[in-house]
Specification:
21% of the residues lie in helices and 10% in strands. The chain has a 3-stranded antiparallel β-sheet, covered by helices on one side. Strand 2 and strand 3 form a beta hairpin. The N and C termini lie far apart (62 Å).
Length: 128
């Protein structure tokens, strides 16, 4: 099983990092932190490059706004060292669930299983 995982890492990019990214990270990467999903964040010695190694599926929406801001140089403080102050009304970060069974399905959609409310103030357009 170890050989198969190594081969998959060498030729795929959607399950973590590729072989080249792993080698570059080992040679030049300075680990700066980890988020609550296990994604690891790195920079090089002169801080000219910043990157993330995903824990599992590579999906950009899995990076929280705090770490996204650091990656894109919106601010230089590392969120694991100096966390951002959050408002009480802010919800915790959640990845984009579109295309999954956990995606939002409003009443009346095919997946919701709930019939839409009957409306009398709307008449559907019918082509002539």
């Amino acid at each position: 099983m170890g050989i198969l995982n190594t081969l998959l890492k060498a030729v795929t990019w959607w399950n973590g990092s590729t072989l080249n990214t792993t080698l570059f990270t080992r040679r030049h990467g300075l680990r700066v932190g980890e988020d609550d999903q296990g994604n690891e964040f790195y920079r090089n010695a002169d801080d000219s490059k910043r990157w993330v190694i995903y824990n599992g599926e590579v999906e950009a929406s899995r990076v929280s706004a705090d770490w996204h801001g650091w990656l894109h140089r919106t601010y230089n403080d590392v969120p694991s060292v100096k966390p951002l102050v959050h408002k009480v009304w802010e919800k915790p970060h959640q990845e984009n669930l579109t295309g999954t069974m956990l995606a939002y399905a409003p009443a009346g959609s095919i997946r919701s299983g709930v019939a839409p409310k009957e409306r009398h103030d709307y008449e559907a357009w019918v082509p002539e």
